[in-house]
Design brief:
It contains three helices and ten strands, in the order βαβββαββαββββ. It is α+β, with helices and mostly antiparallel strands. The longest helix is centred in the first third of the chain and has 11 residues. Core component of the splicing-dependent multiprotein exon junction complex (EJC) deposited at splice junctions on mRNAs.
Length: 164
């Protein structure tokens, strides 16, 4: 476990002072704390979740279906030809709307595409149109599959059927 030293904000150190006196005053203001939570009842201001991005659930937050990522609607493209590049994907998918991001992963050993890509659109309508039109279409001689990257499935029942 790591030790943490908190120094109160009201510490005034004069440079003109005797060095030893200022060090003693500083030591008086220090609070030494140990452990993960610094004990019960202690302030945990450092753990507040401020500044994190999040998305609003919208009209279909609990329903099964596509889910928006923090930045946009992402399509998962499978069976992409290994010699395809970002320009090929951009040419094929840009006719349905503005593409915010294209992510392709290359195989380290061969340097070719791994066979899938992620295409991000800003709006649901653009992504849905691209998915409908391009799922099952041909690209560089291969049939590609286009589907949603993030999908929320149906609610699961917590009841279990027990055999007696």
């Amino acid at each position: 476990m790591a030790d943490v030293l908190d120094i109160n904000d009201a510490v005034d150190i004069d440079v003109e002072d005797d060095g030893e006196q200022s060090v003693l005053r500083l030591k008086d203001k220090v609070i030494k704390r140990k452990g993960r939570g610094f004990g019960p009842g202690e302030s945990r201001e450092h753990e507040k979740n401020t500044g994190y991005e999040s998305i609003e659930p919208g009209d279909h937050g609990d329903e099964p279906g596509p889910q928006k990522s923090v930045e946009g609607w992402i399509l998962f493209v499978t069976s992409v030809h290994e010699e395809a590049n970002e320009d090929d994907l951009n040419e094929k998918f840009s006719e349905f709307g503005v593409i915010k991001n294209i992510s392709i992963n290359l195989d380290r050993r061969t340097g070719f595409l791994k066979g899938y890509a992620l295409i991000e659109y800003g709006t649901f309508e653009e992504a849905a149109a691209a998915r409908e039109a391009l799922n099952g279409s041909a690209m560089l001689g291969q049939t590609i599959g286009v589907d949603w990257c993030f999908v929320k499935g149906p609610k699961k029942s917590r009841k279990r059927n027990k055999r007696h």
